[in-house]
Amino acid sequence: MKKTQRWYLIWGALAIGVLPLRAEVKSTSYPQQMLSSVLMSSTSEGAQSLNAVQQQRKIVGSVKDEKGIGIPGVNIKVRGTNHNAVSDFDGNFSVTIDNNATLVFTYVGFNNQEVVVGNKSKLDVVLKEDSKTLNEIVVIGYGKMKKGDLSAAVSTVANVSALQERPVANAAEMLQGQIPGVSVVSNGGHTGSTPTITIRGMGSRSGETPLYVVDGVPGAPFNFSDVTSITVLKDAASAAIYGAYAGSAGVILVTTKQASAGKPTFEYSVVSGLSTSQNLPQSLTIDEERKVRAAALGGEQYLPDGWDVTKNPYIGTTRTDWVDAIFRTAVYQRHNFSVSGGTDDFSNRLSLEYNDKQGTLLNTYNKEITARFNSQFKFNKYVRLREDLSWQQSSPRDVNTSSAESGVLVCALEMPRNAEVYTADGSFGGTAPQDAAYIAKYGSNYSDIHGDVINPVRTLTANFIDYNLSKVTSSTFLDIMEPIRGLNFTSRFTYKTNNSFEKDFSPRRLEPGKPLNKNTLYYGSSRSYEWNIENTLTYDRVINRHNIGLMASSTTTEYKYRDFSASANDFQSEEEALMYFGNAGTYLNPTDSYAFDRNLSIVGRASYSWADRYFMTASMRRDYAGRLPQGHKYGDFPSATLAWKLTSEPFMPKSDVLNLLKLRASWGRIGNVGSIAYGYGYPTYSNYIFGSGDVGQQAGKDAPVATGKYKANGYNAKLTWETSEQLDLGVDIAMFNNRLNVVADYYKKKTMGLIRQQDAGWTSSIGLGAMYINDGEIHNSGFEFAATWKDKIGAVDYWVSGNFATLKNVVYNIGAADATGNKPVWTDGGTFKDLNPYRTEEGQPLYSFYLVKNDGVFKTQSEIDNYKNAAGKLIQPKAQVGDLKFIDKNANGSIDSGDKEFMGNAMPKLTYAFSTGFNWKKLSFSMMLQGVANTKIFNAYKFLTLNESVSNFNRSREILKALDGPNNAVPRISSSDPNGNFSTVSDYYLENGSYLRIKNVTVGYSLTSLLQKWNYLASRNSSLDLTFSVDNLATITSYSGIDPEVGGVGLDGGQYPIARTFSLGLKLKF
Amino acid sequence: MKFKTISILLLSSLTLASCNDWMDVKSEGTATEASFWKSDKDFSDALVAVYSNMELEETWGRNLFWEQGASDDVFFSRARGNAQMNLANLEMDGSTEGSIKDIYTYMYQMMARSNNIIYNGLKLQSPSTAISHHIGEAYFLRAFSHFMIAYRYGRADNGVPFVRYEDYNPYDDSTIPPQRATVMENYDLIIKDLDKAIERLPWFNEYTADDYGRATKDAAIALKVKTYAYWAQHDKSKWAQIPALVDLLETGGGRGLLDNFADVFTVANEWGKESIWSVNSTGATMAGSIFPGICLDNKGWGRYNGWGNFKPTLELWAEYDQKDLRRPVTIMQYGDEFTFFGEKRKFYSSTDLECGFMFNKYMDPYKYGSVNEKGAGVSSYVSSNGDRPTTDLNVPILRFGEMLLFKAEALIEQGKGGEAAPVLNRISKRAGMGEPYTNPTIYDLMHERRCELAGEYTDRVMDLKRWAAEGYTIAKTRLESSKHGLKYLNRSDPASALDTTNSVEMTINGKTYKGVIQIMAAKTYDATKSCVLPYAVNEVIKAKGALKQNNGYPSK
Q: What is the ipTM of this complex?
């Protein structure tokens, strides 16, 4: 804490230190420079000094749009002076002018307008909407730029406000389908996780997450409803400016609503919806299960006694639909309330949001409340102080669906349907009756005929969980504005602190299935802080036709994390009021942990453009990562871009057909250390913690618990940055009076020196976990294309837009070959039970599926008898009719690992989206379709749901197909699977993962005119809008699993499906 | 320092040279290489992490026993996939047998962790007595885990990977342990480690209860005996080493046979004179081996979460003489009375695949406790977690009974049948079979060994493989034979008659049985290949040429 206070002091000193600087330059007045280069070039310096001594007066007026509605926030400048004003919420303004003044009105999304005042004392100006989105201001790293001047691959999300009306709870969900090359894959319907964003292909083996930069602050939280723009820096040249922070995944810049001058305005919006899950599987009834089990064992006579209704009457009735029991219709709601107002010198904004998302699985939810306060103090025209304070508290409750043992979707299918969710006494039911009288009468409850499966309703509801995570972030900005013309300085101090507290009580599980006659109370608590200080100096000048920009910045970060947890067992009572440590019988060893990190970076950028024709930038960044070993801490990440705007060339005729033609090229590098643990430079011994808090120990008569210590992994003292290098070539085209806009890019991204655990050359016999090394190279390349057509037919504004991206992922280098010339392979990716379908080899995509090919099922015995290799050896001697026929690729007469071949991977080679919409008077409509093609999914869920050789579980009804005779969809039912239909890692599991989804349909209706019948509300420029939307309306796919959007690297073990949501929204402003 | 901090903040771009201290981020929480290996406790904690691997389901909990599916004694009474069936059918391919891969990984972890203890212990100038003992334990554990790999994977023409950190200075983590040319070289290194362990370790009788379960001089000597016995298939002269070592266990260590065979497998006698080396287990803390729960009938008649994986075959039952006291201790058959959570009940098994028997050696801890109102068995002797059903019964790995059998075998193999007779008679006398041997043959030894050790981790399948290697064709026959069980008319009735219509009559070991069903088909034993396990194909690939696959198995 002391240290923290010191930093505050230092920062304060810094702020005070620059104040005299302001005083010195106060006496000199320089004209404000505008972003518009057109204006810049027409301003002559000589004219300013002439005007400087003329008489001054005030003029008032209003700015309206073409519909006659006042526009707030319009920038009004008196040309040639530094007088300026901003219109209020009704569009009114007042400004001091000289005689002969020319006023310049600028507002994003509208054409600039110049008005000569003359003798007028009141001005009413109408601004025309700018169809040329080229003049749109785009937020880039450490600055802003006109979209038309971009020389890097930077994409913006077009209509953020429309997307906000959807019942989505995070920016990632919103990004799906919006930008070509940005792949957003939902991790199912989990309430506790956000979708995975991959920008331009997977380069790192350790996973990559893009960096969110919110109003210039990396990783700051934000209110979803406050977002005004989202920019994705796709190429390395633009992301390089964030260097280490960016990771190799790219950067997403978010800007949010800020405090602005004007009368207080209130806004309230609500989105509320109902969600359901579709396409759910169903399990066998108890009679069907008996039939399937008998078939598996070879006949009714081999069924164990538990299947005999006379010996075990409980087996006679189907009682529960387990799938129905775990799913529900879920409610979604989001409320946002904000108020904003102030003067030019002091303004502030308060925004409160409540987000309550229920999952469609029972008792899963995420509740979040966020408050954000934002204010600005302008001391004078040189010094401004901004503060952004946010507090967020979330309480998620999620459930595991990926575990082959306890995942609720797996369990829902594996539970026998004669079992009950609750028994007569209100306790949870198990696979068989846990009833002393029943056992006494029938000799057993015959739970042995069922597998070890947990009642999934219990998994979802039995635990008492009180978890909340509280995040507070404060960012303070000090802006020194143009003490010297073109020079700006911003100093930012951000402090984030996260606190979490969890109490989790797991009651005893007495019912048959997976009994656990032990209850546990767990408390976990953690606290972390992170501060960072960033100082940025920029200098922008336009001198004649030269546009020069310089930027230098440094960032310092410190992060610290501590946690502590304790648990206890053997509570006599499981009443909520007694779930406290004082009532425990046994206390387990508490655990704690610590993490600490420091980083330092410096970055510089220079940009230059000439005559709006040639654009170039170059940047250099050096990052020091504290976690890396001494001597290997820093990495250098340069970038450069070039662009040529052909339409600005004198030789190009001005035409309405071709409004813009610009060629772009960029190159850059970024670094990544995300997968390296904090403090890697000083490896520690690991504690041996056995199972769930139980610790193993061989010594001592009653084996008391003790903690073991061991070296877990090999240590590499030379570990350093993973680097990603990207080349981008692009073209921007605007045609037909800017009605058609096209952006196309080709990129090639190389990720080098991959940080990964060594595979090749690291064997189990070393006895340690593989050490981290920098090795290997992965290439991603692809085309991206986006086009938008916007036009008007009478009163109807409509737009159509589409985008697609291709992706080619190749592992280019995988390490040195061995003495015999064999190249190493990587075998990680994931396993489900004993199935490991992954292999990565040079020339193949990352995480390729490497499988034995099947050729459907044997239909006749003669097919089996004739299936021999060249030498006449019977290839599948154990096969029977209905078993899978595997291809003996190496023709050695047996099916083994030598028969495996590469069969693609889960990364879609094509992603696309299409959207359209129109506005007609008060009605608006939009629709978005999104899809992926040429992708594979390994449907491992089949291993448990269609395979009778795994324990005694209930199965999916799909298995009944096998009883109809030899069937390609489901191989022969067998209790031992001698042919290896399921244990063979074959393409029987591999399915086409392509899909096309109607992601969203929204209909909106404006009730503003109704509202404005009240004069007061009309005078306040009030508005009221209603929306109705459907998310995930329909999905077209041939995938046989629950949902083709399985996430990860395409291993589907029964994913929590994405819900279809119908929602209503209302937005009120007054 | 303060000045530096300030300068970094204000002028970080200009003072990078001085930021090294500030950027020197250290980790906390557990010891680092530099701060560890000082106190007695450091060495003791490091040993816990070696011993702990013995408690895993993946080692002595269950996985090691899957191999016994290939023997004539054991049957998987629940349907299994190819991951285990390949082992049982002697059709390993190096890619499918996931359970074996786990054993391999955990044994090499034990070797690496022991190596680290030895390496750092030897660097100490004057280690305390405790540390010196701990180094001895590490020598034993390195030898023990090394042996587990050597006799499973090692061939006369292809040894197993093994490294001693102390042979290098300094040792580099990332060195792949060199594969030894022959398994004899491995056995030699194991014996060397055991000799160092014997120098440093106390006898079991010198330990107090707090240290029970730690490696002992007794265990090191016993493991030497077993190592020589396996070495002998490649070099007959090694038999000569065994008798004196076994005698030493008795004279020096005070080891011996308990009077009553049934007492060997009781919680009360788990630290008795017959025990030498076992997985120390406790029900309440869930520490130790889950093997008793694995052998218990599936779901324990509704009382407890038995897993019911392994059952004895009719072939094993037929090996015993009717009067042999070891038979009821080893195998439960229909109608046998036993106590289960305080209740008397009679054995039947209606679960899963039918064979009519159950192993009885690990049933002692289930005697105690009571049945609660829901019908479930509750006891302080067994784990409350059905996912980890450990009990208070230690699971034996090496016991004195086996040592006497090795002594007898060594004498027989040296042509000293006469000297072997009294040794073997001690075993048979305790079994209630008197003292029948005057000049026992290897076949008498095979009979006694099978009867005495059935259902234990002493490794029936590897016994058969080594006997086959020594040229006894009966061992190959046993490995290849089909396996059988008994079929009852009413599986849920302990008094049920045999079902003679859906079964056959069959003569096994000279005795004729009714109601016989085949539970596993005959298979082929290819001694040139299946005498050892295949290395996992992935392990061979990753070794980049440093690991040669065993004969006959795929390496890609």
A: 0.92
